[in-house]
Amino acid sequence: TDTSVLVNRTLNEGKQVLFEGAHGTLLDIDFGTYPYVTSSNPLAGAVCAGIGLGPKKIDRIIGVTKAYTTRVGEGPFPTECEEELAAKFRTQGREYGSTTGRPRRIGWFDAVIVRKAMRLNGLDEIAITHLDVLDQFDRIPVCVAYERNGKRVEEFPNLLQQLADCRPVYEELPGWKQDTSSARRWEDLPAQAQEYITYLERLLGTKASIILVGPSREQTILR
């Protein structure tokens, strides 16, 4: 069918429409880590061109990020963990490519990447998934910036070689070492897990309106 006609007619009738993007921001062919990208624009703005919709019709954009960082395939990855540590994430988080089945590369939460995603997508809020995977750690580092040639880097580099030269600047938070998979409300989360989420909110300057503590629909906390 003509999706442009269908979607615009639905919106004009006062109904809600949800668009779900594919791939992550850094796989964008224009703003991603070229050449390690996909062949399209997976940014929020591409919804308009892909569907045939005016940009004023989109009124809320939610960015989805894990409680840590992952990548499939090649390319620089500043917060990447050693394999022994990555395996702990991979087992509980089911970190394998959904299409290829390849093991995902794992790293600690990278706020530099998420800040870029917020800027490029115009995010109103974020959803944080896989929080339960962090249940197993005593201390949880968060990458707040990079260091390159002795200088602090706050924004994600445009050039791949510059990114390859960057090293993460970490701040550590206490872990909670408790099972969060049964939490259904914000109040059910351990104090340290709440602290981790609110720390990320302050760091990013946006609210985490959705938190997931497992793979099932029921394991979703709405704030």
- What average pLDDT do the residues reach? 95
Spatial extent as radius of gyration: 18 Å
Provide the succession of SSEs. Answer: HHEEHEEHEEEHEHEE
Q: How would a textbook summarize the main sheet? A: 4 strands, mixed
Let me know the number of strands.
10
**From the structure provided, what is the oligomeric state, counting identical versus distinct chains?**
single chain
Characterize the structure shown.
The chain is α/β, with parallel strands linked by helices and 223 residues long. The chain is 26% helix and 21% strand. It has six helices and ten strands; from the N terminus they run H-H-E-E-H-E-E-H-E-E-E-H-E-H-E-E. The strands form three sheets. Strands 1-5-9-10 form a four-stranded mixed sheet, with helices on one face. Strands 4, 6, 7 and 8 form a four-stranded mixed sheet that branches. The longest helix has 14 residues, at 191-204. The relative contact order is 0.14.
